[in-house]
Specification:
This protein has helices at residues 14-29, 64-71, 74-86; strands at 2-9, 35-42, 53-61, 90-96. Helix 1 runs antiparallel to helix 3 (74-86). It has a 4-stranded antiparallel beta sheet. Helices cover 37% and strands 32% of the residues. It is globular and about 35 Å long.
């Protein structure tokens, strides 16, 4: 299984960011054909250490090939450009489940 997480730093206006993400961006991402699940999460507490992120998107795919297919699609290009147009700085991390 592949899990891609997009970590977002704190936006200047959290309410506007959340609304725009949930109503505009997330529907674009949810059109990925091979994505099994997705969630958008807000950090409410950091228990230990420094953590520079305020939000995280998590998507899962059954295989690396499924993930590659979705991320090379026109839908992914649209979603990426959309995120760059309104979101605070973000980092993308891909995890491959080993066990």
């Amino acid at each position: 299984m592949i899990r891609m997480t997009v970590y977002y730093r704190a936006p200047d206006d959290a309410d506007s960011f959340e609304k725009r993400y949930l109503e505009g961006h997330l529907p674009l991402v949810q059109k990925y054909e091979k994505m099994r699940s997705s969630s958008f999460n807000k950090v409410t507490r950091v228990l230990q250490g420094e953590y520079p992120y305020a939000y995280a998107f998590v998507g899962t795919w059954a295989s690396k090939d499924d993930w590659k297919a979705d991320l090379s699609s026109e839908q992914a290009k649209l979603a990426t450009e959309d995120a760059k147009s309104f979101a605070p700085p973000f980092d993308v991390v891909v995890f491959e489940q080993l066990s």
